[in-house]
Structure formats: structure tokens, C-alpha cells
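pls design
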């Protein structure tokens, strides 16, 4: 401990003022040594001169005996002085060695990159962290101009900052991109300090660079999450009422289409209203997907099966000038996801690839097992290590630069010309993948195509069957008594009308109190509870619980436009629940009720009913 304290004292003593004091002491010791040597030499010459020149004795008035004793004393003093001087030099050198070791430890173990450059920008020193972070050896750095390593878009601001530091003597903080040895671009945060000479002019710059690439990535993730949250609040706030209105428009539009023949002059207007309503419904679903506010109905499924199922649709969508190839792993695990949503992700990525290849090209869809480990979590801290199934969508299109890549998942961001896209396709894919517990990454360079990588957690189990799509609107084979609870009068009236036309009896309630009144009537038959989720007072889930306590085992169908947390856990539908997504068509409504009644007839539990 004493040694450490003395070394620390020596190190702390080597500041600028003490360093000058040590230099003055060294100069004084050296000067004193020279003076003593000259005096001793002069004394010896004085003693030896009479012996060498006999004629000089008559000019010698020096007592030889006294002179000899004086010289001996001087020699003794000189020897003591030499010993003292060597001790001082030893201490001085020891302090220098400790200081050099301290600086070596700092420079070799510093996380930041430290560089010393002259006013011309020539590198005088680079800390070893340059090699650890950027991959360049000391020899390579000496042969490369610092400016050449900087991203072309950032060079001018770096040059301006260096000139400012040279003229004012004060450096400012700035961020710029620098090229790694393997070609990647890293983002650095740099500060510069001026080193002045005795005249006060700046002669060197000490530059400290910090790698903030991961921090910038996390900031982008945070900003994207904030934007998605903002879109989520907006879409969630209007989704309920908007979907109710769309349901009325689409429903009555279907009724008019049924009544008005195709050759009627008014039929075209009705058809256009229907198309507009359907486009609005798609836009609403996209906004909910982007903001992760939709309710997913996940099943155990194979990505290979999904890829093959969408092949025909993909070939029609991308056109004949784009070659579509599949490379699907033969032994692939299962994932748990919403089949329709994953199909939508593939379609969105394929459309994005098509638009990136206006002159044709290759679109490759691949699947393979993958594992994300601890090393991946160090690069991307949000990654949970484990086994995943990888879905890759690769095109040979125009590619993207880094700036575009950093924004492609933003809602409403698009590089297409006005009217060619909504800017929601990739944002929607991002929202679906994230809500499914996975990750989506992009790898692209201008002129070298783009690869999207989707990682979904692997699960154990066998694929679950998916029921065939609903048939055309028809009178239901099973007839029952439906307790309909909907606070929106127009949608309630339309839903009641559709159910009655399908052969069912409908008990109509505008709120939970009216619904509970029917449920408490022991002589009133109720086969299915069809209820809205978001209602004034008691919501749909609490109503279902209250009705189930009065009529145990009653099947419940929820009508909902978005996820408010009542029916799902993190957007995944809770077990045993059936949901009819708003806005729904007549066919979807009739089929949902038909499925529940059929399941009750066959003795199945409500949880076994297909969604």
C-alpha cells in the first residue's frame, strides 16, 4: 500500500507546474556538476603545473599540502553530490516510468478512440481502440487520410469543425459517420481539444471519438415506437366509431347491391360506394396493424405452408417480368402466429420488392431454422436469445441507402411518387411481426437489392387446421335466439335485420342493463350472446361474465374493431373467445353465428369454435 501511495504521489506530482520544477532542478544539478568538474580540474592543474614546468615554481605561491587537502575535500563533496544527483535522477526516471505506464494503461484500455493530429490533419497518434472498433491496424491508419474514412455527406461539417477548433482553440461536439474496415458505417460522437504552443497558437488537436452506433439505433427504435404509439392512440381513438360507421355503409351497400340489378343506371354508384367502404376498412386495419392495436388469433402453423399458399397470388401480383423462386427448408419447426397477418406481411414485402424492380428481376422467398444467441443480443439489446424460424424475402432491385433504411418502417413514409402508395405497407409488416413476438431486419445497399429477415419464435406442436372461408350469404341452416347488444343504433338495426333475414330470432339491447334484463328472464330462450366490446357503462367482457353467471355455458361472440386490452393479452386473443372483427360483412356475421350454433349442436366447447 505504501508503494502504491508513493507512486500515486509521484504521478499526481507530475502536473505542468511540477514538471517545470523538476526540469529546473535537473538543469541546476547538471550545471553544478559542470562547475564542480571545472574547479576540480583547475585545482589538479595548479598542483601538477610546477612538476611539469620546473621554471613555473617561482610563480607558484600555493601551499601544496593545503591545496591537496582542499582538493581531497572537494573530491569528497563532489562524490556526495554525484550520489545525490543519481538518486534524484533515479526518482525522476521512476516517476517518468510510472507516468508512461499510466498513460499506456489509459490509452490501451480506453473505450473511446483517442487521436492526436497536427494542424494539417496528419495523424501523430492513434489509440489501440481504433483497431478494436474500426478494424484498422496502426500501419493502415498511418497510410489513410482521416477525411477519406468519413462519410461523404459528413466530411464538410468535420472539416469546418476542425478549422473552428484551430482558429478559436475550442472544439465542439459533433456526430459523423466513419467507415469500418469491412465497409460498414459507424456513427461517432467526437470532441476536439486544442494543444497550444508557448506563443498561444494551436499546433495540435486531441480528438476523442466515441462509438454511438448502437445508441443511435436504439434512439431510432425509440422514436419509431413513439411514432407508432402516436398512430396507435389516434387510430384506437377513432377505430370504434369509424368501424361502426363503415359497418353501416358496407352493410346497407350490400343490401342495395342485392336489390338493384347490374344493368340499373344506379348500380355503378352503389358499387363505387362499396369499393370506397372496403378501401376505408383496409386502411383502418392497416392503421391498427401499424400501431399493434389489432386482435390477433394465433395458431400453430408452418411458414412453408403459408409461403406455398400465397404463391399463386404472388405470381399474379408481381407480374410476369419478375422471377419468383422459393427455397424452403425441408425440416422446419412451427411458429405461433395469425395466419392471415403473416400472409399480409409476405404480400406487403413482395409488393415492395416489385416496385423496386420496375425492369424485372428476381424475388426469392426462403425459410430456415435460426438461432439468436447472446452475441446477437449484444449487437441488438432487444433480442431475446433462443430458437427462431427465419423467413427471408430477397429482391434484386434498386436497393436503399442507410438514410432510407432508417425510416422505412415509419408510418406514412414512402419513396414512391404521390398516389402510388400509402406508406403503410412496411410499417404494417413491422407492427404485425413485433406483435407476434418476432423481429424484422433489413439489409440493403443501393444497386445491390434488399433482403428482409423476419425471425419468429419457434414453438412445439403440430399445425392447427384452418376452417374454409365463409360461403355466400344464405339463410342459416341452424336457427337460434340471438341476444344482440350494440350501442350504435344504426349498426344494431342493420345487424338485427341481417340475422332475422338469415332465420334467427333477435333480442335487441342497446346497453348492458337491457341485455341483463333479458338474461334474467328464466322463460326467455337465449342461444348466443352477440355483444359489442366497447360500450358506455359495463363493457362487453364484463357483460359476458355477468350473463354467463346467469346462464352458464352460453356461447359469446364479441364484435370489436381494435384491441383495447379487454379481449387480449398483448394483442393475442384470450383462449375460449370468439371475435367478429368490425367492419364485418353479412357473410361474416352469418357464418360466425352459424359456427357457434353448429358447435353447440355438436356438443363442442365454445373454445373449440373456429374464429
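designed seq:
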Amino acid at each position: 500500500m505504501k508503494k502504491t501511495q508513493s507512486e500515486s504521489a509521484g504521478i499526481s506530482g507530475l502536473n505542468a507546474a511540477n514538471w517545470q520544477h523538476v526540469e529546473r532542478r535537473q538543469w541546476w544539478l547538471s550545471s553544478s556538476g559542470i562547475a564542480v568538474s571545472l574547479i576540480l580540474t583547475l585545482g589538479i592543474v595548479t598542483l601538477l603545473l610546477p612538476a611539469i614546468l620546473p621554471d613555473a615554481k617561482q610563480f607558484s605561491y600555493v601551499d601544496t599540502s593545503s591545496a591537496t587537502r582542499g582538493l581531497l575535500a572537494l573530491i569528497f563533496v563532489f562524490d556526495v553530490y554525484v550520489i545525490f544527483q543519481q538518486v534524484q535522477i533515479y526518482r525522476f526516471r521512476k516517476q517518468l516510468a510510472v507516468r508512461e505506464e499510466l498513460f499506456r494503461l489509459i490509452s490501451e484500455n480506453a473505450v473511446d478512440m483517442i487521436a492526436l493530429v497536427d494542424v494539417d490533419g496528419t495523424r501523430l497518434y492513434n489509440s489501440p481502440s481504433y483497431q478494436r472498433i474500426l478494424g484498422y491496424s496502426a500501419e493502415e491508419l498511418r497510410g489513410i487520410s482521416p477525411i477519406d474514412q468519413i462519410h461523404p455527406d459528413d466530411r464538410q461539417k468535420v472539416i469546418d469543425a476542425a478549422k473552428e477548433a484551430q482558429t478559436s482553440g475550442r472544439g465542439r461536439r459533433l456526430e459523423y459517420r466513419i467507415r469500418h474496415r469491412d465497409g460498414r458505417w459507424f456513427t461517432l460522437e467526437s470532441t476536439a481539444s486544442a494543444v497550444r504552443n508557448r506563443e498561444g497558437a494551436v499546433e495540435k488537436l486531441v480528438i476523442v471519438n466515441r462509438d454511438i452506433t448502437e445508441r443511435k439505433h436504439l434512439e431510432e427504435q425509440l422514436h419509431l415506437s413513439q411514432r407508432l404509439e402516436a398512430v396507435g392512440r389516434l387510430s384506437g381513438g377513432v377505430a370504434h366509431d369509424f368501424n361502426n360507421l363503415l359497418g353501416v355503409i358496407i352493410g346497407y351497400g350490400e343490401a342495395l347491391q342485392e336489390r338493384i340489378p347490374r344493368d340499373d343506371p344506379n348500380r355503378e354508384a352503389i358499387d363505387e360506394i362499396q369499393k370506397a367502404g372496403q378501401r376505408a376498412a383496409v386502411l383502418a386495419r392497416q392503421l391498427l396493424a401499424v400501431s399493434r392495436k389489432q386482435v390477433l388469433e394465433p395458431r400453430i402453423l408452418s411458414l412453408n405452408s403459408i409461403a406455398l399458399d400465397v404463391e399463386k397470388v404472388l405470381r399474379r401480383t408481381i407480374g410476369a417480368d419478375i422471377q419468383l423462386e422459393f427455397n424452403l427448408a425441408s425440416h422446419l419447426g412451427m411458429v405461433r402466429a395469425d395466419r392471415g397477418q403473416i400472409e399480409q406481411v409476405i404480400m406487403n414485402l413482395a409488393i415492395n420488392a416489385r416496385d423496386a424492380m420496375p425492369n424485372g428481376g428476381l424475388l426469392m422467398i426462403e425459410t430456415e431454422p435460426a438461432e439468436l444467441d447472446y452475441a446477437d443480443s449484444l449487437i441488438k439489446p432487444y433480442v431475446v436469445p433462443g430458437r427462431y424460424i427465419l423467413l427471408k424475402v430477397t429482391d434484386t432491385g434498386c436497393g436503399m441507402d442507410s438514410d432510407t433504411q432508417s425510416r422505412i418502417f415509419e408510418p406514412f413514409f414512402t419513396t414512391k411518387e404521390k398516389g402510388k402508395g400509402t406508406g403503410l405497407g412496411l410499417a404494417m409488416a413491422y407492427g404485425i411481426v413485433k406483435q407476434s413476438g418476432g423481429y424484422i431486419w433489413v439489409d440493403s445497399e443501393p444497386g445491390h437489392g434488399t433482403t428482409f429477415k423476419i425471425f419468429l419464435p419457434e414453438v412445439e406442436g403440430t399445425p392447427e387446421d384452418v376452417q374454409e372461408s365463409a360461403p355466400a350469404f344464405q339463410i342459416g341452416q341452424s336457427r337460434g335466439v340471438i341476444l344482440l347488444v350494440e350501442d350504435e343504433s344504426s349498426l344494431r338495426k342493420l345487424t338485427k335485420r341481417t340475422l332475422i333475414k338469415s332465420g334467427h330470432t333477435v333480442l335487441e339491447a342497446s346497453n348492458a342493463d337491457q341485455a341483463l334484463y333479458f338474461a334474467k328472464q328464466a322463460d326467455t330462450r337465449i342461444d348466443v350472446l352477440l355483444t359489442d366490446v366497447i360500450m358506455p357503462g359495463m363493457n362487453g367482457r364484463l357483460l359476458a361474465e355477468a350473463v354467463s353467471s346467469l346462464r352458464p355455458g352460453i356461447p359469446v361472440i364479441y364484435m370489436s374493431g381494435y384491441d383495447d386490452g379487454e379481449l387480449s393479452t398483448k394483442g393475442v386473443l384470450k383462449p375460449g373467445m370468439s371475435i367478429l372483427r368490425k367492419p364485418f360483412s353479412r357473410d361474416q356475421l352469418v357464418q360466425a353465428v352459424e359456427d357457434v350454433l353448429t358447435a353447440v349442436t355438436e356438443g363442442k366447447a365454445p373454445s373449440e369454435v373456429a374464429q
